[in-house]
Amino acid sequence: MATIPLTLVAGGENHKYTVEVARTTTEQARGLMLRKTMARDHGMIFPLAVAREADFWMEGTYLPLDIVFIAPDRTVRRIAANAVPFSRAEITSGGPVSAVLELNAGEAARIGLRPGDKVSYTLN
Question: In angstroms, what CA-CA distances link 7 with 13, 20, 27, 29, 71?
């Protein structure tokens, strides 16, 4: 998958990441499943063609993750912190989103990310 730079603005500071872009239905269905490690400053973004309510689950995913739901105005709508590996529980966005970002569990808390914080990225 292609990667892009992404910046989260939390607590007045810029936090930079390199994220893989899951564009296709197949890439989005697989996500980070079966991966056992990921660098702290990496993640995966799932852009949605049309803003909508999004549901995720962790089946087949080894890594505990923070799932960041991004509103159409590129702000954080919701953070599902420390999603449990292999869980089939639905994790919902709580409203329409235009993208979903997966980071290592604990990363959102580490940088102080909160709903309303800005997300900056450009899709190629």
Answer: 10, 13, 22, 24, 15
Transcribe 57-120 into DSSP letters.
--TT--S-EEEEEE-TTSBEEEEEEEEPTT----EE-SS-EEEEEEEETTHHHHHT--TT-EEE
pTM for the complete prediction?
A: 0.96
Instruction: Tally Cβ neighbours within 10 Å of residue 89.
Output: 11
The pLDDT tens digits of the residues spanning 45-99 come to 999 999 999 999 999 999 999 999 999 999 999 999 999 999 999 999 999 999 9
Residue type, 99: A
Phi, psi of 27 (to 5 degrees): -65, -40
Q: Domains plus CATH for the chain?
A: 3-121 (2.60.120.1140)
Given a contact cutoff of 8 angstroms between Cβ atoms, the answer to whether 23 and 47 are in contact is yes
